[in-house]
Structures are given as structure tokens and as C-alpha cells.
Amino acid sequence: MNRKRLAGLYKFLVFFLLIAFVVSCSFILFLHFLHYSMEDIRAAAPITFGNVLFITLLFWILDSIRTHFYQEKPIRRITEGLARITKGDFKARIEPLPQISGMAEYNEIIRRINTMAGELAGVETLRTDFVSNVSHEMKTPLAVMQNYAELLQYPELTEHDRMEYGAAVGESARRLSALITNILKLNKLENQKIYPEAAPYDLSEQLCTCILDFESEWERKHLQLETDLDEEITVCADAELLSLVWHNLISNAVKFTEDGGTLGVSLHAENGWAIVAVSDTGCGIDSETGRHIFDKFYQGDTSHAAKGNGLGLALVKRIIDITGAEISVASELGKGSTFTVRLRTEAANGT
């Protein structure tokens, strides 16, 4: 028999004993007067009624005390806590009630409210950090654009300087555009406004295309490109969304690899999975960065912060989650990193 049934049985017994006590006292008093003479019935009736009234008043007082401690006080504590939370104080917590009979249900409500407050506090922190980070990320390229735009107004500028300043303005504009684009994409993904449209396609061909998109960048840094792509590996997924994954991973690998380093991209099929690995010989990731690498705006290597906005890997993680794929990171500080993505092949999806 569970605790709830035991509590119900306990309440039933209490009410039974109270009612039995009242009825017994009334009958004993009434019969006491009738014991002497049937003529005493007129005197016995009002006395018995007065006795019932007295006992009722006594129980009313006791019930009022019980209601105050078991209902009014807990409800007041809960409503006061909720009032603080509704005013935006998400750090507010409601103290649990004493562990006595009748308080377990209230404590369960309090526990759930405190859990809700904790979740709201986390959401509020994320919102505040998001606004702060977006403001900071937008302010930097805007400041660069403003400064170079003012410099471009000087008539004595050489053609070389004018071209250099114009290129700086264009690069800042592209960075700002990429930031806004990633924010919009991430917002749509998190609010489920983008739904994956799965269709079979050749993953190896897509990876080749994505690698070639960065040809000018890895050639400019004289990176050694190592590819090991199995041919004709077909997956059933949203090609456009996964293209964002490969572009972000390859872009990061190029960005964090020093001149003359190595960039690697591999694709293999294994037990119904297509396994894509993007590796580099860059700065690597320490354990602290590894714990936050998929968080929005988090950038472990601040020396490369001007080249990104900290949203790329957050976008990657969200796409991986909604497409049912898996991603893992292996890294060693100072030696490089490898991002591995596993997704089901078309054959595995069909089984």
C-alpha cells in the first residue's frame, strides 16, 4: 500500500474518531438525564444541544488552527515566492515546509516551482549574454567601418591607401553580414522554423565541393591538403543544412591552422554509418574550451576572434541534433583538432 493510500486511511480514521466522540458524548449526556426520569427529557434536550454546540465550537477552533498552519501559511509562502518570480527575481527560491503529515503535496509543488525558477534563471542568463555578445560582435565591425569611412574622406589619400581602407570596410561589412546571417539561421533552427528535408545524395561529392570552396584560402596559407574520401557514399539527409556543417568545420580548420600546416578531410563508411572527419594541425583545444566549444559566441582562441563570431559551432551542433547525426571532438593543445561527424547512410536508413 503506497503512502497516498496510507494518508487517506489516516484521515478517515481521524474523522471517524472525532465524529464517534461527538455522537458518544451527546448520547451519554442525553441518556444520563433520562436515567432518572422520563420527565427530564425537556431539560436534557437543550443541555445536549448546548454540549453539541460547545464541541462544534471547539472543533471549529481546532480546524481554524489546522487550516492556518496546513493551508493558509503554505499557500501564502508559495504565492509570495511566485510573486517575486513573476517580477523577474529568478533567483528567488521558496523554502520547503516542515516534513510533517499533510505537507508533502505542498513541498512537491514548491520543488517544482524552484526547478522552474532555476530554468528561468538559466534562460534569462542566456538571453542577457546573447544580447551582450551580439552587441559586442556588431559594435566591432561597425567601429571599423566608421573609422575607415572617415579616413576615406581625406582628399590627400593615395590610391593604395584608398584601396586598402575600402577593402577593410568591405571585410567588416562581410563579417557583419555573416554574423546576422548566422544569428537568423540559428534562431530559425532553435525555434524549429527550419525543418530538415531529407533526400538521398552523394556525400563524397558534396564534401569535394565544400573543400574547393576554400581553395583560395588554404592555398594562400600554403596548407597541405590531405583528403581520403570514399566514393559513392549516399546519405539521406538535408543537403543544404549539412553543407553548413562542412563549411563551418573546414572554415575553422583553415582559420586555426598556421601557414604551412596540414588540413585533412576524410570520409569512410562503417557499419551503416558515414563518418566524416575534419582535422587540422592548429593550436588545439584545451579542456576548458572543449566544454564550451558548442556554446554561442564562445571563442577559446581569442587571437583568431576577429575572423569569426563564435556562432559557427553552435550552428553546427544544432544542425547535428535536428538531423539525428552525432559529432565529437578530439584535440591536443598545440597539435591540432579533429571533428568527427557520424550520420546514417541511405542503406541504414532504409533498413
- The span between the termini is 46 Å
CATH class of the domain at 199-350: Alpha Beta
Question: What Rg, in angstroms, do the CA atoms define?
Answer: 36 Å
Strand order of the largest sheet: 2-4-5-7-6
- Secondary structural class: alpha+beta
Low-pLDDT ranges: 297-309
H/E element sequence: HHHHEHHEEHEEHHEEH
The helix content, as a percent range, equals 55-70%
Please state roughly what percent of the residues sit in beta strands, choosing from under 5%, 5-15%, 15-25%, 25-35%, 35-45% or over 45%.
Answer: 5-15%
Shape: elongated
What's the architecture of the domain at 199-350 in CATH terms? Answer: 2-Layer Sandwich
- Put simply, the count of helices is 10
Main β-sheet, in a few words? 5 strands, mixed
Describe this structure in words.
- The protein is an alpha+beta fold and 351 residues long.
- Among the domains are: 3-87; 199-350, 2-Layer Sandwich (Heat Shock Protein 90), CATH 3.30.565.10.
- It has 10 helices and 7 strands.
- The chain has helices at residues 3-34, 41-86, 104-151, 159-190, 203-213, 215-220, 239-255, 287-292, 312-322, 346-350, and strands spanning 199-202, 224-229, 234-237, 262-270, 273-280, 326-332, 336-344.
- The strands form 2 sheets. A 5-stranded mixed sheet has the order 2-4-5-7-6.
- Helix 1 (3-34) runs antiparallel to helix 2, helix 2 (41-86) runs parallel beside helix 3 and helix 7 (239-255) runs antiparallel to helix 9 (312-322).
- The radius of gyration is 36 Å and the shape is elongated.
- 19% of the residues are buried.
- Mean pLDDT is 77; it is low at 297-309.
